[in-house]
Amino acid sequence: MALLLCGRGLFKCRKAVEVPLRLCSSMSSGRQRVNGVDLYYEQTGRGKHAVLLLPGALGSTKTDFGPQLKSLNKECFTVVGWDPRGYGQSRPPDRDFPSDFFERDAKDGVDLMKTLGFNKFSLLGWSDGGITALIAAARNPELINKMVVWGSNAFVSEDDLKLYNMVRDVSKWSARMREPMNEVYGAQAFPKIWENWVDGISQFVKRPEGSICIELLPLISCPTLIIHGEKDPMVPSFHPHYLHKNIKGSRLHLMPEAKHNLHLRYAEEFNKLVEDFLEE
Question: Annotated catalytic residue: which of 60, 232, 239, 250?
Answer without folding.
Answer: 232
